[in-house]
Amino acid sequence: MQTPGMNPEQAMMLERMMQMQQMQMQPQQPPMGMPPQTPGMNPGQAMMLERMMQMQQQHFAPPPPGLPGAGCGGPPKENGRPGSEGPRQPPPATGVTISDHEVKVQDPSGRVMAEYPRYATFDAAPFPASIQDALARAGFPAPSQIQQYCWPLAMQGRDVIGVAATGSGKTISFLLPAFSYILERQISPSDPVLCVIAPTRELAVQIQEESDKFGRSSGVRTVCCYGGAPKGPQASEIRSGVQGVIGTPGRINDFLEAGQLNLERVCKLVLDEADRMLDMGFEPQIRKILAKVPRSRHTMFFTATWPPSVRRLASEFLHEAYTVTIGNRDELKGNQDITQIIW
User: Fold this and answer.
1) Please, are residues 288 and 260 in contact by the beta-carbon 8 Å criterion?
2) pLDDT in 10s for each residue of the chain, 343 residues
3) Disulfide engineering: 50 pairs with which of 35, 87, 229, 271, CB 3.0-4.6 Å?
4) What's 100-326's CATH class?
5) Cα(90)–Cα(103) distance, integer angstroms
């Protein structure tokens, strides 16, 4: 072992001394002011060992920030040249990466479309500037597959069935088109125009967090309604006026029955994880909610599985719907291969 600054003889001596040191379990305590001493060495050898080890540490120490080889010592320049801010390093993707041949888009008759437009980049999507700014702040590298193929349909007001694994990025597949609709028409907070139904409190809260991230800075207000929490604060938010309501079937029905929530203005309806809601026995509550929503609504329906019971519900609640399937989802229960990170 040879370290720069040593001749071969010194390097061999260092190696021998280190071997001697490793053979001893407990080093002796040196007198005050003396260097650490290992049995088998005299004080002069111990001092030489200490000096050689210092030389080795200096050689292998990382360079200080700002010097060549220091990694992230300073902001990168545009196109990788140091000195200006340039593009951010992207965080992990929020969607499942699936090749294009695993994406299937069907028209309302069930015919598989050979070609279909998609928004392969965020810039390609015709979202208002405030939403594009929020996407830039989030730092996502690119839209997920479900986003790329659902957004063109949603922006045209088409009913959509999205069959994709849990964690594939479905949330902003439905939130951003709805927010664009609200912003372009300058819809003020009042009774909601967007209603998102989710099976669990946890999912409803997650959707609300994404709503705050992408909508709050643009002036889009949503309220999250779920059981297991006091109704008072949720009811107060509804009374103060919102553009959207996000919640579980039970709590939304509670507010409807109490006359505290009016869904007559809803024109954007989303059923997220519809298969789970059926499995949990929420079909009666879903029907009660939909009875309060205008039939002329635009509906988006997301599910991780596509069994007959879910198909029946979709055929009843949607009109002339397009179906976007990501991978083979006939019996899939959810994506177990990814970890979703919310930024």
Assistant:
1) no
2) 554 455 555 555 556 655 655 544 444 444 444 444 445 556 555 555 555 555 444 433 333 333 222 223 333 333 332 233 333 333 333 343 445 558 999 999 999 998 888 999 999 999 999 999 999 999 999 999 999 999 999 999 999 999 999 888 999 999 999 999 999 999 999 999 999 999 999 999 999 999 999 999 999 999 999 999 999 999 999 999 999 999 999 999 999 999 999 999 999 999 999 999 999 999 999 999 999 999 999 999 999 999 999 999 999 999 999 999 998 755 444 444 433 333 3
3) 35
4) alpha beta
5) 24
- Only one residue has tokens 């919640």, namely 247
